[in-house]
Each structure stands twice: as C-alpha cells, then as structure tokens.
Amino acid sequence: MKLNKPHVIRYCRTGLILLLLLAPIAWVWVPGVSDFVSHSLAAFATVDQHAIENLIRSYGAQAAVASFCLMILQAIIAPLPAFVITFANASLFGAFWGGVLSWTSAMAGAALCFFIARVFGRNTVEKLTGKTVLNSMDAFFARYGKHTILVCRLLPFVPFDPVSYAAGLTSIRFRHFFLATGVGQLPATLVYSWAGSLLTGGTFWFVTGLFVLFALTVVISVARSIYLERHRKHV
C-alpha cells in the first residue's frame, strides 16, 4: 500500500509524540536513563572534552551507544558544539571508528530536529531554539536557500541544530536536507576525528584554532561559488 504525504506526516507525528511522552517517563522512572541524562547535562555544562570522554568511557562495553545518545541529546536540548563530542569519540575509538560514530549520530540528531520542526511547527521550535535565533535562521534561508545548510555545517562554532529545526519549517525535502547535512559535516568530521585521535589536553585549543581557519577557508570558497552563481544569473 502506497502512503501519501498526509499519512506519512500523521505517522511521524504519532511516533514523535510517543517518543516525547516516553522520554520524560524513562527519565523519571528508569534509573539508568535518569543517571545518563543527569551526568550528560553536567558534562555539557563544562564544555570540556575530557569530561565528555570520561562520561562515555564510564559505560564500558556500551560506550559507543552512550556516545550516540549523547550526540542526539545535545542536538535537542543542549547548546554544546558537537565537535567536542567528535574529538572525544576520536580519542576513545580512534580516527576511523570515532569518525563513523560521530557522523552517524550527528546525522540522526539532525534528522530528529528536522522532523520535530516539520511535525510540531514553529511554536514548538521557538520554544526549543528561541525566537531570535529562529528569526536569524529564517534570514539565512531566505537569502541562501539550501546552501545555508552546507555553509553552517562547515562552521565549527555555529550551532547547527537551530539550522536543522529551521530547515524543517521550510519546504525543503528531507532527502535534500539529509544530503546537504551529510556532505556539509563530512569534511570537518574527518579532520576533527583525525586530530582528535592525536590530541592531548595541552594542544586542544591550538588545534581547534587551526580548524577554525580551515572551516573559514571552506566557507569563503562556498560563499564565492554562491556569489558567482548568482552573478551569472543576473548577467
């Protein structure tokens, strides 16, 4: 049976409502979930790679699952730059597997933010991101369209989650959003994962500074391509 768009939205809405209802119940009544969220929020407050590493490492054989959940949690409720978790993953699991874990979990978090916005609408998104932040995202999308996703994903200190939420409020198709997200975050994930596997505490901010320069170079290149494309259309 082929599902039309209203049916898909209805099923997504039902699934998200059930998830959002079960999450606080699990937080309150399931000790493991409650402890994980509490410890995660405490680690987020420090914005410290080593605190994140210690939290993930404490779950032993379930460390990869804990990291995956941590990335999704920060995407929804915590204003923590995802690259800190990417560094921690690379340090704990190595450049390759840490990178795979960071990329897939970030994709899952971005997709969840997108569907929360698509299903529940602007009022819910404003409560999660703030009206001012969402308005600034609207301006970016109005000016650059789908390129907004790619550019913002390349900037390490720009919170991407508001972009995911804002994208869900636009007419952009999920597959286009997902593709731009995957491509946009891949270069930084590769570089961060490689560097994270080599980092020590004393070199963290030095290497971070180098990556900022790397990201800015890429963004300038993308912006130049957008400008030239727009210029050709007006000639």
Automatic annotation (TrEMBL):
Q: Tell me where the transmembrane regions lie.
A: 12-30, 64-88, 100-121, 177-196, 202-223
Please, which domain of life does this record's source organism belong to? Bacteria
| Cell membrane found in the keyword field | yes
InterPro entries xrefs:
TMEM64 (IPR015414), VTT_dom (IPR032816)
Q: Which GO terms describe its cellular component?
A: plasma membrane
Q: Which UniProt keywords apply?
A: Cell membrane, Membrane, Transmembrane, Transmembrane helix
- Topology relative to the membrane: Multi-pass membrane protein
Domain (VTT): residue spans on this chain: 80-197
Indicate where this protein resides in the cell. Answer: Cell membrane
What the record says about family reads: Belongs to the TVP38/TMEM64 family.
Supply the name of the protein: TVP38/TMEM64 family membrane protein
Per the UniProt record, the source organism is Citrobacter freundii
The organism that produces this protein has a lineage beginning with: Bacteria, Pseudomonadati, Pseudomonadota, Gammaproteobacteria, Enterobacterales
